[in-house]
Structures are given as C-alpha cells and as structure tokens.
Amino acid sequence: MIKILVATDLSERSAHAVQRAVQLIRQQGGGEWCLLHVIDDDAPVEIVQRQVQQAETLLQSQAQRLAEQAGCRPQVLVGTGEPDVVIVESAQGMGADLLVVGAHRKSPLRDFFSGTTLERVVRSSHLPVLRVNGPVTHAYRHAVLAMDHSRTAQQALVRARELGLLVPEQLHVASAVEPVAAGAVMEVGISAEVLEDQRDVQRQQVSERLAEVGVNLDHERLLVQIGSPEGVVGDALRQSGGDLLVLGTHAREGVSRFFLGSVANRLLATIDSDALIVPPAA
Description:
The chain is of the alpha/beta class.
C-alpha cells in the first residue's frame, strides 16, 4: 500500500499536486496519504497559532471532499518551522514512499539544484519527489527516463515502476553523447564516423543497463543522440508525447552527471511535463 505525503502551500499550484495524489491513490486501490502545510515560526507566537488554526480548519474541510474523490481520507498535518526539516520529519514519521509537490514558481524547478527546500529534502530524506506542473487530467501515459553512465537512472527506473508511475511498455529513454566532448574531438581531427561509433557504444551500454532491470526497448523508444542533454531529453519528450520525466540523482551531489548545473535548470525550468526526482535509497 502506497504512502504519499503532499506538501501544500494552499495555492492553486499545490491543488494540482493534491489532485495527482488523489489519482495515484485511486490507481493503487487505496493507500495512506497526508496533507502537510508548514508555517514559518518567525512571527509572534499568537500569530503563528492563529495561522495554524486557520490552515487546519481549511485542510480539514478539504479532507472530507478529497476522501470522496480518493476513496480514503487524507491525514491533515500543519507544522511550524523550517519547511525542509518539517517535511523530512513528517515523511519519516509516516514512512512515506513519495513526496508530491506543486510548482511554486513561474519557472518550476529553476533553483531545485541550488540549495532550495526540495533539494535539501531529497538529500536528507532519500525520498522520491514528484513535481506536478499542471492540472491532472489522466494517469501518466508515457514516461521519459533520462539516462547517463551512472547507476542512478537505473535505480530511478526501478523506483518509478514500484511506485506505479510508469510501465515498461510505455517507457522512452533519452541519453546524450555530450556536444562539448564531441566538439573537442572534432577540433583534433577525429571524424564524424568516430562520433557515430561513440553513439553506438553508448546505445549498447544503455540497453545493457536497462536489460539488467528487465527492460528491453525497441529502437524507436531508445533515443541516443549527439547533442546537449536538455536537447536530447526535450526531443524525447516531444516525440513520445511524454507526460512524466524521470531523473535519478546522487544524494550528496544533487543531480547526476547527466545534468550539470545550468543544464538541469534549463531543462527542468522549461518542460511542461511533471518530473519525478529519485535519489538512491538511504
């Protein structure tokens, strides 16, 4: 039975995250889920207490309606303090399998990898985070897995499948042969054929990694291209009609080497699809 923690700031964007949690609970045939709202405790005590009471009243009112939609009532929790600390403690307390959040900025995930609350949550809790960017109209149909040379993408694939967020028959995989390296090769006179050979080798490596976890993809669903990671993944999302991007991360290093710094920001700040960020298990 899945256990989902939904972190909400009570905005419309967070409402999308709540609806995705409803869809997942229904899809799983039930589960345990919790709505969490965190209030900054820097204000005077009486103000914080009043805000807690108001938030609890609002969420309890929503919980009954959500129970009818999901088939089971969510627990309501309003905490005070640092958001990342409260989220991690709450997730650990309920033994959550998944944290679901909404896009709280105009450019979702733009600063996810630069010390934000979500990054701290991923690093300290080892909890998969599902970032919901828009209204929920259906279950996820086509997931795109970003694949690099590490084991993190492989682990992310396994976890996403366990969470019921993808099925191998609808999976697409994107892997990039870095253009910077390709440019350096061309400068020293290595031919384009060598680059194509590199792509063939990487395709074989990716196929072997997928086979290790029981996934075998046909040529159309395995996209290995010479280009930037964001370009290759963007192509895969467009070609497949993907509605979920799956990323594996290193707990201590943030995102895996497939997405470095500004690459992650450019990709995740512009995609329309939801994103599942999966760190390695603790």
